[in-house]
Write a structure and sequence with these properties.
binds adenosine-5'-diphosphate, globular, P-loop_NTPase, AMP kinase activity, ribosome biogenesis, alpha/beta, EC 2.7.4.3
């Protein structure tokens, strides 16, 4: 299983839809959590739910036995036992516009953009010993991001090693 993770708004859902259209199995984590009765109380800040990770990992066993690649779409995905973690990134200004368009309050936009500037999810993902790749989704289309993901799963992962994306220059604007 391969995790597709990243700050809300970076493009996980869009690239997951593109991967599905190419015939890949992509598990929508919220649907999976609902189906298995694993949705805990809502975490407004991260626009997600608190989840019992042990129970979640057990419930994902069915996908680990599947042939071929199975992707997990969610910013929780990097906390699941995966074989690879793909962290999608987005330029803070572009991310802010996307989250505003989604109707997030200014505080929630700022909170999520700050997490992106601080590499929060990348740091969480690289905490484990699971291979991590980082993809800048700021300007490419979802199809171009899916092309990159296909290159990574076909063995060209080195080009997208973590650490090449740095938004620290935006620190002043968002903190
Ligand atoms: N590669 C992209 N290029 C332009 N806009 C994008 C791209 N990926 C996503 N978007 C737009 O950004 C917003 C957030 O994308 P979404 O896939 O829902 O992000 P996430 O699932 O990470 O929260 C949506 O309005 C979507 O249309």
């Amino acid at each position: 299983m391969i995790a597709i993770t990243g700050t809300p708004g970076v493009g996980k859902t869009s690239v997951s839809a593109e991967l599905r259209s190419r015939g890949y199995k992509v598990v929508d984590m919220n649907d999976h959590l609902r189906k298995h009765g694993l949705l805990g109380e809502r975490d407004e800040g991260r626009d997600t739910y608190n989840v019992d990770m042990e129970a979640l990992n057990d419930s994902l066993e069915e996908y680990r036995e599947e042939e071929g690649f199975v992707f997990l779409d969610s910013h929780l995905a990097h906390e699941c036992d995966c074989s690879r973690i793909l962290v999608l990134r987005c330029d803070p200004h572009i991310l802010a516009k996307r989250l505003e368009a989604r109707g997030y309050s200014p505080e929630k936009v700022r909170e999520n953009v700050q997490a992106e500037v601080l590499d929060v999810i990348l740091c969480e993902a690289t905490d484990s010993d699971i291979p991590v790749n980082e993809i800048d989704c700021s300007r490419g289309t979802a199809s171009e991001v899916a092309d990159i993901i296909e290159r990574i799963i076909k063995g060209k992962a080195d080009i997208y090693r973590p650490g090449n994306i740095d938004w620290s220059g935006e620190m002043e604007e968002w903190f």
